[in-house]
Amino acid sequence: MELPANLEPVTVWREIRAELRRALGESTYEIWIAPLEVKAFEGTVLLLTAPPATREWVSKRFGRILEGCAKAVLGFEIQVAVEGTEGHDPTAPSGADRPTDNLNPRYSFDQFIIGDGNRLAHAASLAVAELPGQAYNPLFLHAPPGLGKTHLLHAIGNYVSAFGGTTKVRYTTVEAFTNHFIRALGSRSIDRFKNTYRDVDVLLIDDVQFLASKAKTEEEFFHTFNALYETGRQLVLTCDRLPSALGSVEQRLRERFESGLVADIRPPDFHTRVAILRKRAMLDRVPLADQSVLEAIADRVTDNVRALEGALIRVVAYHSLTSRPIDLELTTTVLDAMYPQLGARSLSIGQIQAVVASHYELAVSDLVSASRTAKISWPRQVAIYLTRELTSTPLQTIGDAFGGRNHATVLHACKRVSERLADDQQAGSELEQLKAVISKDGDDRSC
After folding, report:
1. Tens of pLDDT, residues 87-109
2. What fold, for 344-446?
């Protein structure tokens, strides 16, 4: 059965997209489905185009649901084929030959949340985007997975593409660089390969740790690096470790990585995590029934930005499946399944208050009083900080336990302690001692 003549492919695709949005949820839809475009209907086959970087994944991961939603709209079985945006034109350059094909437009400086842990990396990346080859060259961004280094890499590329005029920018991963190099050797097109990466003004290279143990690729990468660097063109690299820790990579490459600015990205603090979630919720139009949901997620998920956003997506998905409002109860249910707080509930706020009060020669009643004297204020802030760190107690519950204070006061106390720990080694030792006593007290009571 073919598409009725009175139906336009674009109109049908609009209805199928609406069905996909409902089925997949806002976040998944925006990331994977929104970039798809309808090309044509050929009999019972719906031809779609996707960016080359995501075509294979979309086809494998979403093929069935694409066909299911198409059937729901049209009322009959239909096949869905997803091809790259270059289509079948044999004269069109491949994705590896078009500089900006693989840049993700969602990764921009506007969408990047700045915090203490990434401020230097963000500032350096923006400087490089504004003045390629003149600010920091090379720029080496290092961080564990999921903290935003790839986001900054794409943000540089998108910024240069938008505002750099004729400046040519290329993004690649070391894996893609390696595969392209191997194909070039096999097809005897090594000169074309060299031009692909050397005839650009800004080269963005992700995951350079994977250069390890690839001797021929390392050699070619070294010459590519030199060809660009010596002519004043910009290089930006990301890695999951410092250059000095790349033991399997040649010394001469490690030295070049260190010759510019090396900027690290650290895990986001609580305030930054909340800001990231708030931005994500706003972009995806998440219908929050309670703003404390974001604080609950930020409180529990501390590892990286990817896990943080993944937790929010999981909560939204659970809401879509159950029709329950996105409130603290639903969020806690989802988080308990994903990130169980093992042993956290064996400690009570009362235990922590008692240990802290004893350490500072105060009574628990002093900690929960309205007094703001320095003798009491600091111990109270320490007790609040330790309660939040060592238990899974919601912020408002902590505030209630400390004399009916609100969650903003709890956050302020935690921030003050964090700031002092950064500058005061004695305060850090003091807190470690308190943690040890509190943990022992909790173990003793559970026996």
Report:
1. 433 433 344 444 555 788 888 89
2. Chromosomal Replication Initiator Protein Dnaa; Chain: A; (1.10.1750)
